[in-house]
Specification:
The chain is an alpha/beta fold and 320 residues long. It has 10 helices and 13 strands. The protein has 2 domains: 232 residues, Rossmann fold (3-Layer(aba) Sandwich), CATH 3.40.50; 59 residues, Alpha-Beta Plaits, CATH 3.30.70. 32% of the residues lie in helices and 29% in strands.
């Protein structure tokens, strides 16, 4: 069942240009942030929403959360129109912006949570149960009496996520939630989001430039570019057409008698040989057969191109 329905969504912004010398007024320019975007998201889905800077991702999230009003188009989230029924809508959503805070800077985070409890009118027993659950899952117990300004970036993001989920929202928007986080904090945040989605069926819409987040969390990905939806499907299906180069690391017991076909790039290193090839021109099975025939292999590693390189190649081909 679709929880989010978006049909032909459009949004323009008026931007004033820098005033030219000799002119009294600045010229204006129209930026088409969204040009007729349509999609639907089922209840309980975990969806990645990706695209280059300026593609319209944050604009979409702000419209879906009721912060912005579109110029035209239809949006229905859980049976309500976000910007028309804001009070009813915000009871069922949580929003985390990676570069903005909803918690109070100079007070202990427990005081911010108590205030959010009153804002959302959460019953005391339900609040205490949920806070204990989230604090344990996000490892926040030792930080409850610490002001937000004294927390590290990773600790602040965990605190923000807790605050957004206290009222048990059915829908969670995450806009760059792992920006600036270290590897340990990213892994912990990903594990928690998987748990929240599985345990409570929370619908999650994730906007990020970190493709490892998308690969680890999302079964579905939508690509936005120039204000238009360019792709909607599974991440492997998206990357397959751009996975044009693969790399092989191979170590032999003795110096091999290796004769490689044209087009295979081979570099000698201290650890062995590093090869790059194009699967479309040379099937992987054929290359592996050539390597095996050349000598006794001690170790072999085959890996596709890095996900970030594939996404960059996609953006370049689509002129994004």
């Amino acid at each position: 069942m679709s929880y989010i329905e978006v049909n032909n969504l459009k949004k323009d912004f008026i931007v004033k240009k820098k005033r030219e010398k000799g002119k009294l007024l600045r010229e204006k320019d129209t930026v088409n942030a969204l040009k007729g975007v349509s999609f639907s998201v089922d209840e309980g889905e975990l969806v990645g929403y990706i695209g280059p800077n300026g593609a319209g991702k944050s604009t979409t999230v702000k419209i879906l959360s009721g912060i912005l009003t579109p110029d035209s188009g239809e949006v229905n989230v859980g049976g309500v129109v976000p910007w028309k029924d804001r009070k009813q809508h915000v009871k069922n959503i949580g929003v985390v912006f990676g570069q903005r805070s909803q918690l109070w800077w100079d007070v202990p985070i427990i005081d911010s949570y108590n205030l959010l409890k009153d804002i959302y009118r959460i019953p005391q027993a339900s609040y205490e149960e949920r806070l204990h659950e989230l604090a344990g899952a996000l490892d926040l117990e030792p930080l409850m009496r610490t002001p937000l300004r004294l927390l590290s970036l990773g600790q602040r993001m965990r605190a923000e996520l807790c605050g957004s989920l206290l009222h048990r929202p059915k829908l969670l928007f995450l806009d760059e939630p792992t920006i600036g986080l270290d590897a340990v904090s990213k892994l912990a945040l990903r594990d928690f989001l998987k748990w929240e989605n599985k345990e409570y069926g929370t619908t999650i819409m994730l906007t990020t430039h970190d493709m490892e987040d998308i690969a680890a969390l999302c079964s579905r990905v939508m690509v936005l570019g120039h204000g238009q939806k360019l792709f909607d499907g599974k991440l492997p299906d998206l990357l397959e057409r751009f996975d044009t180069v693969r790399n092989v690391s191979v170590k032999y017991a003795v110096e091999p008698d290796l004769k490689l076909p044209e087009g295979v790039i081979c570099n000698k290193t201290e650890d062995g040989l590093e090869l790059s090839y194009e699967p479309s021109k040379l099937p992987t099975s054929k290359l592996l057969s050539i390597l095996q025939d050349a000598g006794n292999i001690r170790e072999l590693t085959l890996q596709p191109e890095n996900t970030d390189h594939l996404i960059a190649a996609m953006y370049k081909e689509l002129d994004l």
